[in-house]
Amino acid sequence: MHSWNDQAPIYQQLADRLATQLLDGDPPEGEALPSVRTLASQYLINPLTVSRALQALVDEGLVESRRGLGMYVRDGARIRLLHTERQQFLQEEWPRLREKLRRLGLKPQDLNWEDA
User: Distance (Å, rounded) from C-alpha 96 to C-alpha 17?
Assistant: First the structure.
């Protein structure tokens, strides 16, 4: 069961989830995404919401529609996502995280990068 929150429209939350899967290589570049019906059934949402999420991924240049075949992951999508996610982390999340670590008095040696 997938849960949605009130922080963003459901289509955007789905687009973000699908982008995370693309970042993880699922499906690989050049491969088809599940159909709108399959995604709607999997996430228990309206097919129009799924279509809007997929259009958001098309608009970001991550997937492409192939007439009569469905949606496919574009070549370079993972690299584009990786670059975007890294930039977002460094500009938005890292400063807040760094400030919290400072406030808590945590040093690099206190953090174990391997246990996650």
Answer: 23
